[in-house]
Amino acid sequence: MARIIAGVTSSHVPAIGAAIDNHRTNEPYWQRVFEGFERSKEWIAKAKPDVVIGVYNDHASAFSVEVIPTFALGTAAEFPPADEGWGPRPVPVVQGHPELASHIAQSVILDEFDLTLCNKMEVDHGLTVPLNLMFGTPKEWPCPVIPLAVNVVQYPPPTGHRCFMLGKAIRKAVESYPEDLKVVIFGTGGMSHQISGQRAGLINSKFDHAFLDNLTKDPKKLTKLSHLELMREAGAEGVEMVMWLIMRGALDDKVDEVYRFYTVPASNTAVGHIILENKIKGGKKTSAKPASTKSASRGKKSAPKMKRAAARQKIERVRS
Ligand SMILES: [Fe+2]
After folding, report:
1. For residue 61, how far is its CA from the centre of ligand 1 (angstroms)?
2. What is the extent of the structural domain holding 191?
3. CB 132 within 8 A of CB 16
4. Whole-angstrom distance, CA of residue 277 vs CA of residue 252
5. What is the tally of structural domains in the chain?
6. Residue 70 belongs to domain with CATH number
7. What pairs with residue 56 in β-bridges?
8. The whole model's pTM is what?
9. Which percentage of the chain shows pLDDT scores above 70?
10. Catalytic residue numbers?
11. Exposed e or buried b for every residue in 286-297, given b needs 16+ CB within 10 A?
């Protein structure tokens, strides 16, 4: 059967895409951001997902302001990059997985989540920037990607709780797919950001760190945050974090946090990145930790000491 092995959160700010496209990733401002994803690229190269489910929001690219679906699942065979005003980004066309996507659609809709199905759709920076951050700039993306666009652009977006429950339904759908596929789910957007108005540029790192902590340990707490609370604490666009709860809902209750990176600012937002792996599944550990974290339990230590040492080193946190 197919299984979800891990979840990833990632920023999707368009300026990151522009830095990549304009070869500015080595500039000091951007270097700090991209270095934080180096170990993530190592991790995903080792995890080798067969499919990625990319939860993101469309920014009036595929959908105009005339039609705004709450949850739109990409069931097409491919998704070209959208022209966001200065031509499409020079990134590969996203190859979909119509069979798995249709299966997810059937399972999730019969579970009473009313998805919009997109048999033709262009994808914007919301999806392609996270793919760059995790996979770099290959000629072709290394695996099929199923886009799931969530409305966080026009009020009302779905609640965090609804998103979390949708994640659970997606997991159920994936696990009822007969082919043996490894799936990684991305939740993108966030963290603190306010693009316009008097609070433009708002960064609330304290809130962001608490959100990341709870995402790993107590995600149900996050499902109780109202839109107003999210926007008050993290800025109007901070509401994008409800999308992370779809990712989190698709994982085990208890997960291994194998990597975390937080930095400010990138454009005028905070970048919060985390990799969560499901624990033992079917007797098999799914861990694909970056090679450089392997030394966590080396040495002749007693079992409890080893456990404590491993726990201390398990979470690789990089902050700047
Ligand atoms: Fe966005």
Report:
1. 11
2. 3-319
3. yes
4. 9
5. 1
6. 3.40.830.10
7. 149
8. 0.89
9. 87
10. 125, 193
11. bbbbbeebeeeb
